[in-house]
Amino acid sequence: MKFKVIKKSKTSWARLGYLETDHGVVETPCLVPVATQAVIKTLNSEEVKDTKSQILIANTFHLHLKPGEKIVKSAGGLHKFMNWDGPLMTDSGGFQVFSLGFGKDLGTGKILKKKSELDIKYGQQPKLLKITPDGVYFRSFLDGQKVFLGPKESIKIQESLGADIIFSFDECTSPLASREYTKHSLSKTNKWAKICLRSKKSKQALFGIIQGGRYKDLRIESARFTAKLPFDGFGVGGEFGNDKNKMMGMLSWVMKELPEKKPRHLLGIGYLEDIPKVIKRGVDTFDCVVPTHYARRGIAFTSFGELNLQKPVYLGDKKPLDSKCSCFVCQSYKRNYISHLFRAKEITALKLLTFHNLYFFNSFVEKIRKEIKQGKF
Question: In the annotation, is 287 catalytic?
Answer without folding.
Answer: yes
